[in-house]
Specification:
Largest sheet of chain A: 5 strands, antiparallel
Bound molecules: iron/sulfur cluster
Radius of gyration of chain A: 15 Å
Number of domains of chain A: 1
CATH architecture of chain A: Roll
CATH topology of chain A: SH3 type barrels
Distance between the termini of chain A: 36 Å
Order of helices and strands of chain B: HEHHEHHEEHEHEHEHHEHEHEEHHHH
Order of helices and strands of chain A: EEEEEH
Strand content of chain B: 15-25%
Low-confidence stretches of chain A: none
Largest sheet of chain B: 6 strands, mixed
Mean pLDDT of chain B: 93
Number of helices of chain A: 1
CATH superfamily of the largest domain in chain B: HypD, alpha/beta domain 1
Oligomer: heterodimer
Low-confidence stretches of chain B: 371-375
CATH class of the largest domain in chain B: Alpha Beta
Largest interface: A-B, 36 and 48 residues
Number of strands of chain A: 5
Structural class of chain A: alpha+beta
Distance between the termini of chain B: 41 Å
Strand content of chain A: 35-45%
Chain lengths: 76, 375
C-alpha cells in the first residue's frame, strides 16, 4: 500500500492536481491534490496513489551530512 | 532522493556502536515499540532486530498495520455485500482480500451474479470502476491510517461532486495516537520509548504524540523507512533517555514537517468525524476511528447499505493476533505460528498483511518458534 520511498515527479497535467511519477523505472499515475505547486523534478512520497509530502532538499542534505560524519568516524 | 548512505555498512555500524554505548548507560534494559508495520518490515528485512538486540535495544511491534487491526466484522460486511448483492463491485487493496473470517475471505467468497471483487492500487481506481459501470453498485473497502484516509476521503468527495450515485466507501479508518495511549494506559507491556510512523506523521505532524512525553514521561522519535533512518530514530530516543528529556524528536525532517500536511488534515476534518472505534486486540478506544459525517451519508457505504461492521472484534480460533498487536506477544509465541499459520495459509490477519508482525517474522526469521521473548 505504502511505497515508503520517495519518487520523482516526471509529468504534471495542466490542473497541477495529477501527473506521473517514476517508481523504480516505471511510470505511474499520481494525484497531487494534497500538496501544493508540484513541479517536474520534485521528489514526493506517494501513498495509495496520492502524494502526501514533498521532500525537503535542505533537510535531506543535512541528514546525509550527519550520516557522512558517522561514516567518517569509522564504523568498522 | 534515495541515497546509498542510508544503507552504508559503515554508517550502520557507526550508528549501532553509538546506540550500544548509549544503551549501556540506561538504568533499565531498553525496549522500544515501533508503532508502524512498515518499520517492522524494514527492521526485519535488514537484520536490525538482532543487531539492535546485541546493542542492547529490544524492538517490539505495535498496532500499526491497518489490515491487522481491522476487526473481522468489517471484512464480513464486505464479504456479505459482494456475495448477497447482484451487479456489485467490491474494490479494495490487495491484502484486504486475504483476511480469513468465519465467512471465508474476499478471495474465497463466491460473488453474486454479475458481482466481483476487484483489487485496486489507489481509491481513484475504484471511482473509475464506478464511472465505467454505472449500472453496478461500487463500494471501495478502505482500511487505513492517517496516511491513507485523506486519499480515500478525497476520492469519496470527488464521487459526490460528480453525482456518482453508485459509488460509496466502506470506511475502516483508524487514527494512530489513541491506541498508543490505550497501550500505555493498560500498563500490560513495559515500553521505554517509541518510533513513531513517518508517513502518518507527514499528515498529522508532531503535536499529537506530545501526550506520551507529557503524561507518561516517555521519549519518542518520528522515523523514516531506510535502515539508517531506523537507527537515527533509535539513537534520538536513547539520547532523550540519557538527557532525561522525553519529547517528540523529528528524525525524518526531509519528509515530515512539524505541522504535518494541513491540506490533508483539512480533507479529513471536512468529511469525517471521530468515534469510539473497536480495534482488533485493543477493544474499543475513545475517538480512535473516523467515519463520514451525516452530511456525507450518500458516499458512506455503512449508511447506504445499513451495515454495522464495528460490533465484533473476536480473533479466529487459536489466533493471537490481538496480543501481537498490543506488543504483549511475539509472533513465534503463538502456537499456530509456522505450523498451521503460514503466509500461504494465514489463520489471522497478522500473517496476511506484508506489514503484519507474524508475516514479517515468518518471512525474515523463518517458521521456527525458537526465539521466545523474556518477560
Ligand atoms: S501466527 Fe497466525 S494465528 Fe498466530 S497470532 Fe499470528 S496470525 Fe494469528
Amino acid at each position: 500500500m505504502c511505497l515508503a520511498i520517495p519518487v520523482r515527479v516526471i509529468e504534471t497535467d495542466p490542473s497541477g492536481e495529477a501527473g506521473k511519477v517514476d517508481y523504480l523505472g516505471t511510470k505511474i499515475g499520481a494525484n497531487f491534490a494534497l500538496i501544493k505547486d508540484v513541479r517536474v523534478g520534485d521528489w514526493v512520497i506517494v501513498h495509495a496513489g496520492f502524494a502526501i509530502s514533498r521532500l525537503d532538499e535542505k533537510e535531506a542534505r543535512e541528514t546525509l551530512a550527519m550520516l557522512r560524519e558517522v561514516q567518517a568516524a569509522g564504523g568498522s | 532522493m534515495p541515497n546509498d548512505l542510508y544503507h552504508d555498512r559503515r554508517v550502520i555500524a557507526g550508528l549501532l556502536s553509538e546506540i550500544a554505548s548509549l544503551a549501556k548507560k540506561t538504568p533499565r534494559p531498553v525496549r522500544l515499540m515501533e508503532v508502524c508495520g512498515t518499520h517492522t518490515m524494514t527492521i526485519h528485512r535488514h537484520g536490525l532486530k538482532d543487531l539492535l538486540l546485541e546493542a542492547g535495544v529490544e524492538m517490539i511491534s505495535g498496532p500499526g498495520c491497518p489490515v491487522c487491526i481491522t476487526p473481522d466484522g468489517f471484512h464480513e460486511a464486505a464479504i456479505r455485500l459482494v456475495t448477497k448483492r447482484e451487479d456489485f463491485i467490491l474494490a479494495t487493496f490487495g491484502d484486504m482480500t486475504r483476511v480469513p473470517t468465519r465467512l471465508g475471505s474476499l478471495q474465497t467468497a463466491v460473488p453474486a451474479s454479475g458481482s466481483m471483487v476487484k483489487v485496486v492500487y489507489s481509491p481513484e481506481d475504484s471511482l473509475e470502476l464506478a464511472r465505467l459501470n454505472p449500472a453496478k453498485g461500487v463500494v471501495f473497502f478502505g482500511s487505513g491510517f492517517e496516511t491513507t484516509i485523506p486519499a480515500v476521503t478525497l476520492t469519496a468527495g470527488r464521487a459526490r461532486t460528480e453525482g456518482r450515485a453508485n459509488f460509496s466507501v466502506l470506511t475502516a479508518f483508524w487514527v494512530i495516537p489513541p491506541p498508543i495511549r490505550a497501550i500505555l494506559s493498560s500498563g500490560e507491556v513495559r515500553i521505554s520509548g517509541f518510533l513513531y510512523p513517518g508517513h502518518v506523521s507527514a499528515v498529522i505532524g508532531l503535536e499529537p504524540y506530545e501526550f506520551v512525553a507529557r503524561e507518561f514521561g516517555l521519549p519518542g522519535a518520528v522515523t523514516g523507512f531506510e535502515p539508517g533512518d531506523i537507527l537515527l530514530g533509535v539513537r534520538a530516543v536513547l539520547e532523550q533517555i540519557r538527557d532525561k528529556h522525553p519529547r517528540v524528536v523529528n528524525a525524518y525532517p526531509r519528509v515530515v514537517r512539524a505541522e504535518g500536511n494541513p491540506a490533508a488534515r483539512a480533507v479529513m476534518e471536512k468529511y469525517l468525524e471521530p468515534y469510539d472505534a473497536l480495534w482488533r486486540g485493543l477493544g474499543r478506544i475513545p475517538q480512535s476511528g473516523l467515519r463520514f459525517k451525516l452530511d456525507y451519508a450518500s458516499v458512506d457505504a455503512a449508511a447506504k447499505y445499513g451495515l454495522h461492521p464495528a460490533e465484533d472484534a473476536s480473533d479466529a480460533p487459536g489466533c493471537r493476533c490481538g496480543e501481537v498487536l498490543r506488543g504483549v506477544l511475539a509472533p513465534p509465541e503463538c502456537r499456530l505460528f509456522g505450523r498451521t499459520c503460514t503466509p500461504e495459509t494465514p489463520r489471522g490477519p497478522c500473517m496476511v498483511s506484508f506489514e503484519g508482525a507474524c508475516f514479517v517474522h515468518h518471512k525474515f526469521r523463518g517458521p521456527s518458534p525458537a526465539t521466545r521473548r523474556k518477560k
